[in-house]
Design a protein that fits this description.
about 25% helix; DNA Primase, Chain A; alpha+beta; elongated; about 300 residues; 9 helices; 3 domains; Dna Topoisomerase Vi A Subunit, Chain: A, domain 2; 5-stranded antiparallel beta sheet; about 20% strand; 15 strands
Length: about 300
């Protein structure tokens, strides 16, 4: 049985307030305090994830952070006190402050980098304001100078980066993604060792319940700019920067504390549908719904024209 995020005392709480409960590999299953508290059944419908502090009732659809469940059964103890301290979901802020560095970003000066700006607008629309791109770097020289970076790994390539590359700094600034405006070459540069995971993401508003995952930065900004899925509510965008969508989903859930989200994947067309069946099975306890789209007029969502076709 997999190691859970809670210490063993969670079982005492369930036994006392929501018994009977069943322990499975990824969940506890017990009666729902909203719709099953006074009912006697052979099978109850409240699932409590052992991987993230979240619950979902498959009978009345009540779901959310487990603190909400504790409140419903009059448990005043904060769930953080029950989470094993070595787990990534506990003490979240202090974990991410370890060895964390905040770099200063140079101001985006369109006039000094017309080729780079033209490249971005070609991909995201002529009316797109490049200043809307989170942690965008056009001036690599200034980025290094104002942050006094002494050990930039690719200093010998700096002239090329300054002329023909755009950069995207990860959320916690530990890595820099650089991409050529001349071809499809890209690479990740490690800026410092970070005690935790670090990817590129952004959110468009308060209390989002949907996470949109793309392979690359331009995949997610295509949806951000053109909104071809016609989503008119706050969402979280995360770039997997590989085909490891499972890592990206777990990262976004933890980073934004968005439990039991709807997941939308902007897939490359060369990924087999069987992979998503496998992925859905893996993430089922920690999400509400999974939708997968591919671009019907191209390999991915990197460039227009984009015709989203639902795959899964």
């Amino acid at each position: 049985m997999k190691k859970m995020i809670y210490d063993e005392s969670i079982k005492n709480i369930l036994e006392l307030h929501l018994s009977p409960f069943i322990e499975k590999d990824k969940n506890f299953i017990c009666r729902c305090p909203w719709c099953e508290l006074n009912e006697e059944k052979t099978h109850y419908h409240l699932y409590i994830s052992k991987e993230i502090p979240a619950f979902n009732c498959f009978h009345c659809n009540k779901h959310g952070h487990i603190n909400l469940l504790f409140k419903a059964i009059n448990i005043r103890e904060n769930v953080d006190n029950l989470i094993v301290k070595s787990n990534s979901f506990s003490n979240k802020k202090s974990l991410k402050n370890i060895d964390n560095k905040e770099f200063i970003l140079p101001e985006i000066e369109d006039i000094n980098f017309p080729d780079k700006v033209r490249y971005i607008k070609k991909r995201l629309g002529s009316d797109f304001d490049v200043k809307n791109i989170k942690n965008l770097i056009l001036d690599f020289q200034k980025f290094i100078e104002i942050n006094k970076i002494q050990n930039f790994a690719d200093m010998c390539w700096l002239d090329a980066y300054q002329k023909d590359y755009v950069g995207f700094l990860f959320d916690h600034h530990s890595k820099l993604l650089i991409r050529s405006i001349k071809n499809k070459f890209y690479k990740k540069i490690q800026l410092f060792e970070f005690n935790g995971d670090d990817l590129y993401s952004l959110t468009t508003g308060q209390n989002p319940d949907t996470i949109i995952v793309g392979e690359g930065v331009f995949d997610i900004y295509s949806q951000y700019s053109f909104n071809f899925l016609k989503i008119n509510k706050p969402v979280i965008y995360v770039a997997a920067l590989s085909n490891n969508y499972l890592r990206a989903i777990k990262y976004a859930i933890e980073e934004y504390q968005c439990f039991l989200p709807n997941i939308i994947i902007l897939s490359d067309s060369n990924i087999n549908k069987n992979y998503y069946s496998f992925l859905k099975h893996k993430i089922k306890p920690i999400i509400t719904k999974l939708l997968v789209y591919y671009n019907g007029t191209g390999k991915d969502f990197n460039e227009a024209p984009i015709t989203p076709v639902r795959l899964f």
